[in-house]
Amino acid sequence: MNSRRQIKVATRYFFIVVVTDSDPATRRGAAIGLGKMRSVGATAVLMQALGDADFVVRALAAQSLGQIGDSESAEHLLPLLQDSDALPRQYAVAALATIDTSHYFEAILRLIDDPDEWVRRAVVAAMQKANDERVVELLIAALYDTSGPVREMAAEVLGHVGDMRAIKPLIDMRNDPERETRPDSDGDAIDYEGHSLRAIAKRYGPPALQLLRDYNILDQLESQQQWESFKPPPG
């Protein structure tokens, strides 16, 4: 049996499971399986699963649609942004961000004040891919979120976006005595703000370095000699 035939048979099997099996755990497994296949042929099955009675199945169907990346599924994911359970909302945000952040950014942004911290974190993560002039200010505001995971994601994404306006807020958060940190695999605290400040300095070079000097943080991040060797990227 060739691979195309195998995918077709597997898709048909998962379709039967997702639609007819009474056990939510089995339907969850089928939704995951369809995502791992990354077959556009699975899109229709997963779109149907977005209406499953089990909120985990709905969430996993959204996740799998994001993995497949078929633009046809995006409109079907939008209702999940208003799901009564947080997990489907979170996974729908992530899926829409993967499929087409810019086109669906307004819909995603409506959940920036969601009561669930992991939904808000997903919205902040989606900003990395958004081509919108509001992103930097939104991320700076997210640095002051009540949730540690949201603040960490905001700091991380600001490093990827790389804007000089983020330097002072990142320094303020890094110097906050009540700042929460999570350990890395070696047990050392992850310095999200510091990583982002380094990324911005590498991008902008001397102007960013001067700001870091003005705020007396340059030596805290790295040796001054090492920072002086950084050059902004061409263009």
Give descriptors for this structure.
14 helices, elongated, disordered C terminus, single chain, 0% strand, mainly alpha, 235 residues
Shape: elongated
- Which structural category fits the helices and strands? mainly alpha
The whole-number mean of residue pLDDT values reads 84
- Low confidence ranges: 223-235
Question: How big a fraction of the residues is strand?
Answer: under 5%
Largest sheet: none
Give the total of beta strands: 0
Roughly how much helix do the residues carry, as a percent range?
Answer: 55-70%
Please report the number of helical segments: 14
Using only C-alpha atoms, the radius of gyration works out to: 21 Å
SSE sequence, one letter per element:
HHHHHHHHHHHHHH
Distance between the termini: 51 Å
Describe what this molecule looks like in 3D.
- This protein is mostly helical and 235 residues long.
- The chain contains 14 helices and no strands.
- Helix 1 runs antiparallel to helix 2, helix 8 (135-142) packs antiparallel against helix 9 (148-161) and helix 10 (167-174) runs antiparallel to helix 11 (192-204).
- The protein is elongated and about 65 Å long.
- The model is unreliable at 223-235 (pLDDT under 50).
Summarize it.
This protein is mainly α.
Write the layout of secondary structure elements.
Elements (H helix, E strand, L loop, with lengths): L2 H18 L3 H14 L5 H7 L5 H14 L5 H4 L8 H24 L7 H10 L8 H8 L5 H14 L5 H8 L17 H13 L1 H9 L3 H4 L2 H5 L7
Helix pairs in contact: 1-2, 1-3, 2-4, 3-4, 4-6, 6-7, 7-9, 8-9, 9-11, 10-11, 11-12
